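Suppose a classmate hands you a notebook page containing two proteins, each written out with its sequence and a corresponding row of structure tokens. How would you begin to make sense of it? This section walks through that situation. The first entry is reproduced here exactly as it would appear on such a page.
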Amino acid sequence: MSDPTLRVDAVMDGIERDVRARLRRHLVKRGGAAEYEDEALFEAVHAVIARAVDGRNLDTTLLPELLDSDVEWRLRTTLELSSHRPAAGRAILFVKRRILLPLTRWLFEYSRENFRRQDHLNRVLFACIEELAIENARLRRTLGTRAGTP
């Protein structure tokens, strides 16, 4: 008697489909977009967002390149101490490093984790916006081709 062959891809596709269906029902039940009642529409939205999040390098998107180069949109999580005073600067920095820095270290660590999460979310949102813009451009091109305009 031979063992039946199990197709992993088919099993994984079924599991992923079930997870998306549960997610869709959960979102609708919790007051999410009413349009998600339509399973095909939800699948299309999920595919676009998943392509943006999973299929992209979040550090190489178009939107940050279009932002003014003088504006820093990336969150900086490093703590830098400096002084603009030439004479008293060393003494002030000494006090900041020896007294103030240890007192605020716990607040900085807490804030740094929040900044890291916010930075990741910003990059994901940039990728989603770019993916939607690409999808919009494709649809416009398709509609233009069907209407007879290039």
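The notebook's second entry, a different protein, reads as follows.
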Amino acid sequence: MADIFISYGRSTEAQAQQVAQALRTSGYNVWRDDELPAHRSYGDVIEERLRSAKAVVVLWSVEGWVE
């Protein structure tokens, strides 16, 4: 399982890729949802990966922000 789970919105996908690469270069095992297996439920996989991760990195964006 991954050391780090990265949570991000579609508008921050490029930044999520950069963060993931930087963390991998530093020796961490990183998981993003671009690695979802086709034969499993999205919700089940996300929950499993979140529970097993040692840390979670969340990339916030203003997209969908409500004031």
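A careful reader of the second entry would note: The longest strand covers residues 4-7.
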